[in-house]
Structure formats: C-alpha cells, structure tokens
C-alpha cells in the first residue's frame, strides 16, 4: 500500500464498460485478492543440485498448483493461455506455456507446470555457482506468470504477477518468497493498466515492489486518467515526491487516431522551467512528425496532483472519432531512482521511430461509454448507468430526447442463460416517473427455466397491472450481462425515481437468492415507498 492517500474508489460492478480483469496468483500463500481476482499459486520446492566443489548441475523450478480467474470481460471468453517466464537482463524469457479452456464473462481454471531447469534456459551453470569453498552464494531469479484470456470479440485481456526466487549454492535450499500479487483488477473506473518499478542494480534510492497504476474513466465530454504511485510501506522517500531524485517526471502519451504516431503528451515535471506553477505542461506532434515545444495545457485539458495521485483530464474528442486509440505512461527520477513504464511492451514506451513520436509500444485501448449518473448495489452485483441524451435534433423529424438506463448484472446473466450453478435469474428496473415516492413502472429481464411471468425476454408492467411486452414510450435491448432501457424524456418529470432489484435460483437446491438491490437506502426493496433514488434530467 502507498504511504500516501490511496485513490478513492466508489463501488462499481466490474463489467461496466471495462476491459476486464484477469488474475494470476503467485507465492506460497493465498494473498489478499483485489476485486474480481483470486490468486492461488504454489511452486514446486526449487530443486538445486550441486557438486562437492560448489558447481551447479541443475536448478529446477515449476508450478504445482495454480489458478487464473477472469471477470468483467467485454464479451464471453473463448480461450485462455498461461505463460511461465523468467526475467534475464531485463528481458522476459518464456519457460513454458499452456492453453486452457475458458468460457463466459467470468470464470476460473487451474494449471500446473512441470519443473524446468534454469541452467538450461535462460541461464547457465555459472550464473548460480560459488567461487569459493564454503562460501554461500545467493542468486535472485525474477519469475513471472502471465495469464491471457481471448474473448469472442477478439480482445486479449492479460494479467501479470512477478515473484523472486533466491537460489543458494552449497546445499542451501532455494526459496520462493510468498510476496506475489495479482495486478489486474477493475473498480470505479473503466480501465486499469499497471507497470512495475524497475530498480537498476546499485542505485541509491530503490523502491522494491512499487507499481504505477493508470486508471481510466470515460465521461460524456471528458476522459480522466489517474496515475497512482503505489508503493510499499517502509520507505522514507517516494516517486510521488516532487523533490525526489533528479528531474522527477511523469508523462502520459496519447495516439488518438491510431496512426502509429503519438498526437500529444501531458507531463508532471515539477523541476522543469517549461511547466506551469503546478508542474504541468503539454506538447503535440507536428505534421513532419516531430515534437513541438512544451507549452500550456490547451482549452478543455486540466491536470492536478494530490498526494500520490496525478490526474489528467482530456477532452473526449482528443481521442479521435474511432472506438480505439493508444495510450501509455512512464515515470522516472534520475539515474539513482527507479523508473516505471505502463505500456504494451515491458520496459518500453517511446520508440526512436518517427523522431521519437512513435506509439509502437503504447497500449491498444477501447473508448468506453461514460454515464451521467451511476448507481450501484452495496454488494457490487447490480449497476444502473444513466445517460441523458440532451443533443439537439435539428437533422431529424423527431425532436424527442431520451434517457438510457444501462442495467448490468455480470453474475446474473451469461448471455441468454443463467450463470453456472443457477437455473434462472431475473433483474428488474423500477421507475417513479412523477417522483411521488411510489413506483409507476418496472421493466424485467428474465432468463432460465421457469422464470415467472416473463420466460426469456424483457417485459414490463405498470403498478397494479399485468406483465406486457408492447412497450409504449420505452424501448429495450438485451445485452450479454443485462439489458438497456431507453425512455422518452416526456415520460420523465424534471425529477424522478429509479431503482433495481434482482434474484436468482440455485440449480440444485432451488433456493432463491437476492442478487442485489439498488435503492435510496442501500437496502430493502425498490417497491417500498420512498426507497427509489431521486434523480433528475
């Protein structure tokens, strides 16, 4: 945990507009899991075989029990892969890999890897040997596990974890430290990317175990990037301190039109004469292409820093008109301090191509939907995202504005089916159009066997009426993990009430369970008088 204030995260269902989370665990013990990630991994006891003179014959290491988990994908999983790697001279070398089965928007699978001799690949015997009789030589080997889940939509979602194995020669048993952790999670943001601190050997101010997390949130007009210096306790200095090291800086790069060339970069560089009084600046690329000079943030851009958080706000239009773009970040503080890169290629962000404007190593990212309002059940199982369409309709005959309600329940629906272990699910969205404290209309989606009143599909009823499917002033659309309801604004008053509720039935015991409730009180039922959330257009 950082020694400074952590990013304040609202509870949110992990599937909302998110790239997804893939977790892979490391260490001998089960560690505290991030939201949506349950890491478990047990290594074979490292087997170090030595001769009497201290020469090394074999260093075997493998994985006896491992598991990956995924949750919050943008479409159902198609296949998973796990890569078992060692890091040599800063480069990743794959020791072994496996293809695993993967289905659904969430799930888990287990794996193992037979022992691999590290003296065969990527090291040699001499890398571990002791030069003197009786002298203990300890050599650290950085191990890495990467989990990747391929989705049916063609996206690839990855999660990495690192651990260090210490190999001791002269009959000293090798050890694997139980300090690994998963670094992929989804919270109150649409996307999260992360990079681990790199500490060059011999530097005077290392920070072991540090990470730079990049959280991305898409609003209707603005995209927010929050860079978090996530550092362990115990250090008297931090990369987040403006006076740490020399030339301490953080840079965010964007390639909005995905043409292989960055369009602009934003920086926090408190020691630079080119930045404003708060340490921020902006520069763009020219048509040549090459970098222009640093200057003031353009209209619509903003930046701030508080504690270990650096926040950049970028106009959504700066990401271009496509639904994908590229992004990356890096931070450094001189030769005696760590450096860190958040990119698609470990340790790399800027390529020398195109006069150092190339986005070759940036992360390919998807633009996600932003919400005007966001309401989430206390147990994170149901979310209602609200989008008000206030745009002018000069080019259309119909000048009626609408409001869209995106109901997401990733553990309630698996496409057209109930999730594994459940026979049926239904989730309901409640409206109090005139905001008098009592609900007027509810819209229900049900899937599975024996769903009362609805079967598989979306229906609605008015208070005191029967279930109907001939919607008037309301349109609906089913999604993989919920449904979308669009309401003509003339049905909504200046203020109105909204809430949601869901249940599911276990397949074996036929027990009904509450999936979640979105209400004013955070508990109870939406149909209880006065318990809907008051909102406005």
UniProtKB/TrEMBL annotation:
PROSITE patterns: TAT (PS51318). Residues 517-537 are annotated as: Disordered. This is Uncharacterized protein. Residues 518-537 have a biased composition (Polar residues).
